Amino acid sequence: MTQSEFRYAHHPEDAKKYTTEDLRREFLINDLFNEDKIKLVYSMYDRLIVGGIMPSTQALKLEPTDDLKAQHFLDRRELGIINVGGAGKVTVDGEVYELANKEALYIGKGAKEVVFEKSGDAQPYFYINSAPAHHTYPTKKITKNEAEIVELGEEKYANKRTINKLIVNSVLETCQLQMGMTELHPGSVWNTMPSHTHTRRMEAYFYFDLEEGQTISHFLGQPQETRHIFMQNRQAVLSPEWSIHSGVGTSNYTFIWGMAGENMDYGDMDGIKTNELK
């Protein structure tokens, strides 16, 4: 079974007037994983689709929603998958890819059948991002050992973190989709701080590996007009191109960042000094 939602884009002047309830309704995705279901959210921000797939007692096939007006989900799209749970497998047009925890799979435009299944006793959680594509690139599995690794931050600023670039153009070719995973070290709680914006692409964050009973405050909005959303484990949030996307937790955690837009340069961002945020 597939559940789908549609989210419009927002003008920053309108977002300034949003209540807590408005912000959570428009940007937060709080029920991504449901047993034996596929949950998809189609965003008008660069037409990115954010989804959660949880096969438990049966295989789940990725079908096109009415929003796509397509025969197959990937007729005009590319897809990135990161498994954040137990062992699972993804079958793409008959070829099987086994995905362990924190392993990724890129699927290029034109694949006809994509099926998700559980492999072992532990429950897999497949987090997905999908963006429009104009060219077909090969399907490829990416392990953490194959990722481009970047160490950032300092313990004294509580932002020491390891960035695993999994689906990026320095690792494999894609049309516009980029995905990676940032792991906060024990004792560090701040992500993407100092913060930045990048008007040439939007972003989505998915938070997981959060200790039971803890929370994360995700910051969004223009640098001089910020807002926040408190988030729980395995929740996602949409970040417009005009918005910062930083967060702080009451314990350390891991998050997946996914981007779509016109620029594939990871370093193309407009930095904001921490003491200039309002």
Describe it.
- The protein is mainly beta.
- The protein has a single domain (2-276), classed as Jelly Rolls.
- It has two helices and 24 strands.
- It has a seven-stranded mixed beta sheet, with no helix packed on it.
- Strand 13 and strand 14 form a beta hairpin.
- The model has no long low-confidence stretch (mean pLDDT 96).
Brief synopsis:
The chain has about 280 residues and is mainly β. The protein has helices at about 10-15, 20-25, and strands at about 1-5, 30, 35-45, 50-55, 60, 75-85, 90, 95-100, 105, 115-120, 125-130, 140, 150, 160-165, 180-185, 190, 195, 200-210, 215-220, 225-230, 235-240, 245-250, 255-260, 270. The protein has a single domain (about 1-275), classed as Jelly Rolls, CATH 2.60.120.
Q: How does CATH name the architecture? A: Sandwich
End-to-end gap: 43 Å
CATH class: Mainly Beta
H and E order: EHHEEEEEEEEEEEEEEEEEEEEEEE
CATH superfamily: Jelly Rolls
Question: What is the helix tally?
Answer: 2
Helix content: under 10%
Oligomeric state of the chains in view? single chain
- Tell me the major beta sheet: 7 strands, mixed
User: How many domains make up the 3D coordinates?
Assistant: 1
Beta-strand content bin: 35-45%
CATH topology: Jelly Rolls
Overall geometry comes to globular
